[in-house]
Amino acid sequence: MAGIVLKTVTGSQGATRAIKDGTVTPRRFAFEFEEVPGLVPAFRRMVRGLEFDVCEMAFTTYLCAKAFGKPFTALPVFLVRAFHHGAIVRGTASPARTPKDLEGRQVGVNRGYTVTTGVWARGILQDEHGVDLNRVTWVLSGDEHVAEYRPPANVVPLAPGGDLAAQVRAGDLAAGIGLNASPPGLETLIPAAEEAGYAALRRSGLYPINHLVVVRDDILAARPGLAADVFWAFAEAKRRFGRSVMKAISVAGPGGSYRCADRGERSIHKYGWRAARNCPRREG
End-to-end distance of the chain based on CA atoms, in angstroms? Predict the structure, then answer.
């Protein structure tokens, strides 16, 4: 396999640093990285045009793509995990005070219905709070990565020229998914959302997957063993990042502050060892 170069897209973060800076070198091929600002456009380019050999991809984008026969396969490389209780926000003027209050109302969704954060958030509403998702009208600000997908009948587009965040803030939409709760006039619908995520982890042991890695099927078919090599490279980069995290934790000590990753995650000093020991998994 000498001389094989794989056109690759993956975000720059702790768990990928070693493969992107060349510290970890794959055994029988080379990565050729293309930087795609924001990363999300790469998902669409891969789904619709198979533009890359190896590509980071949102979890539910992959599931949807496979349902429509897209010719690539995921490897068990999970580059982003997250809790999503805080992704559901309300305007302070909204009549919805609790998740059940969303029934019979309109809820905004940032981008498409199959966006991974939205899928996990709807699962939280249904499984943890008993919300009947069929009784909510979901208002989308964008379309789907997988063009063939058709959402349910209770999914509608935002009116042309509409501002999703502004409508949530004003209470015109009962809540929104995938919006930042920090701006004035917005707050999380689920109280103590971050702690609710940790509580869900304790109950179920599930740390939700957001992103994985896919490889084109024609490349996998032509080169037996390549999938294992790609996996090894990402896994070794993650192991090195994990060791650096645990070393920093041991220096900081219980209750110390450590910044988990390059993607702007907050300092975890509030949660001490409990959260700190999750850091490698959050980015791996």
Answer: 27
